[in-house]
């Protein structure tokens, strides 16, 4: 911090102390050397919350649930990205995307069948699945409809790109289970089916199945939540979220893809010339500034710009940030560790001069790919497609410090 920024910071802190004192006796007591009420008697009993929850003062940090959400059909909730720090999403705030509601599956009754082009068809219990050698990895999961091409009208970072979350996943390599069944020479695809009312079904190329694909039963150390596919899901690092089939009950090894609803009428991208891209698996590099971001308010002087970047192709190499509407870009610092196919936190110190401006970030991944502007992306893809919008998200900052969607 420069001397000037430091002095401004201290002046503002002094003003904040004044504000606290003015807000009543309790805040006055809480300001040292005062003694607040919560120091005058023992607190709640240890173990009074067998499963811990956040402070009641954080009750507003919740999933972003659209108004008028139609249940049991095709619905989603979003992660409140602007309210979180670091790179891991708490399990209770992981985004949800369901095509037929959330089944209530008894793991004792659940079975995984592996059949088709295999030497030894298998029917596994959850106990069987957990006997295989396990692995844990931190990966992001993103819906390819995040945000969609016409839905860039939202207000917050969560409204715009909240269909992404990141967690540590534990399970068994899909390759290990497939080898147990024994792949026949013609095995080129694995068609995965979920045990929900939508029977979500997607085809996975065999190369991915034998590479980093996982069968996951735990998330951030505890068993998967029902919303995330309890008791078992497929997890395909870097691929569009739709393919990570939840509530997994069947793997049909085949020579051809299933050409299911989710890979014909949905999850394809209509191009300007009327043809459609199909099997667009990889989530391309993307980033968003989460603070300051839409509906937040900043004051002149020092403001840290921070956000998240990710790429389905591996690691993030760098993130550039503009604070002058794209005239110039500066290199942000990346928080270590920068992990393969995980969220990466970036930061840039910034002194805001109080003038109206636009800020934005753009990610560059280890392949050299640069996150495109919305104009550059739509020049190639047109506006007919819905999935795989990874364009730069600009935030407009008004002279009063109010931050708003730069697209609107
Ligand atoms: N069985 C099943 N698997 C599913 C879905 C579904 O509706 N049913 N939704 C898919 C979609 S579109 C996405 S983006 C991810 C979302 O995973 P999450 O809810 O754990 O975030 O799950 C995928 N797997
Ligand atoms: Mo999705």
UniProtKB/TrEMBL annotation:
Record keyword Lipid biosynthesis present: no
Domain spans labelled Oxidoreductase molybdopterin-binding: 99-257
GO molecular function: heme binding; molybdenum ion binding; molybdopterin cofactor binding; sulfite oxidase activity
Pfam families: Mo-co_dimer, Oxidored_molyb
Moybdenum cofactor oxidoreductase dimerisation domain sequence ranges: 279-392
Needed cofactors: Mo-molybdopterin
Biological process (GO), any one: sulfur compound metabolic process
Residues making up the signal peptide according to the UniProt record: 1-27
Lineage top rank: taxon: Bacteria
Record key words, sorted: Metal-binding, Molybdenum, Oxidoreductase, Signal
Region (Disordered): 22-51
Name under which the protein is recorded: Protein-methionine-sulfoxide reductase catalytic subunit MsrP
């Amino acid at each position: 911090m420069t001397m000037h920024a430091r002095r401004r910071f201290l002046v503002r802190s002094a003003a904040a102390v004044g504000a606290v004192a003015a807000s009543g006796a309790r805040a006055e007591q809480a300001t040292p050397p005062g003694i607040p009420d919560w120091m005058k008697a023992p607190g709640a009993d240890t173990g009074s919350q067998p499963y811990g929850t956040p402070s009641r003062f954080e009750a507003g940090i919740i999933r972003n649930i659209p108004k008028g959400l139609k249940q049991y059909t095709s619905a989603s909730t979003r992660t409140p990205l602007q309210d979180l720090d670091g790179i891991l999403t708490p399990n209770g705030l992981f985004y949800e995307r369901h095509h037929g509601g959330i089944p209530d599956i008894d793991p004792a009754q659940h079975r995984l069948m592996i059949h088709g082009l295999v030497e030894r068809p298998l029917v596994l219990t959850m106990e069987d699945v957990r006997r295989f050698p396990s692995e844990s990895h931190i990966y992001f999961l993103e819906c390819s409809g995040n945000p969609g091409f016409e839905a860039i009208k939202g207000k917050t970072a969560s409204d715009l790109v909240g269909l992404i979350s990141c967690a540590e996943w534990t399970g068994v390599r899909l390759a290990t289970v497939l080898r147990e069944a024994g792949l026949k020479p013609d095995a080129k695809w694995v068609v995965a089916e979920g045990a929900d009312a939508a029977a979500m079904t997607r085809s996975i190329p065999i190369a991915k199945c034998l590479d980093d694909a996982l069968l996951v039963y735990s998330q951030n150390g505890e068993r998967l939540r029902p919303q995330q596919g309890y008791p078992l899901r497929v997890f395909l690092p870097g691929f569009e979220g739709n393919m990570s089939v939840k509530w997994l009950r069947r793997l049909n090894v085949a020579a051809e893809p299933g050409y299911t609803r989710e890979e014909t009428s949905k999850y394809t991208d209509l191009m300007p010339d009327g043809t459609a891209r199909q099997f667009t698996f990889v989530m391309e590099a993307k980033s968003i500034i989460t603070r300051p971001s839409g509906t937040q308010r900043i004051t002149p002087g020092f403001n840290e710009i921070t956000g998240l970047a990710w790429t389905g192709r591996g690691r993030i190499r760098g993130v550039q940030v503009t604070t002058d509407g794209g005239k110039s870009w500066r290199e942000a610092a990346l928080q270590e560790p920068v992990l393969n196919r995980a969220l990466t936190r970036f930061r840039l110190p910034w002194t805001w001069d109080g003038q109206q401006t636009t800020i934005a970030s753009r990610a560059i991944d280890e392949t050299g790919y640069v996150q495109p502007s919305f104009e550059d992306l739509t020049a190639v893809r047109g506006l007919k497609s819905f999935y795989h919008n990874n364009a730069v998200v600009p935030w407009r900052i008004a002279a009063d410090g109010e931050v708003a969607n730069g697209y609107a």
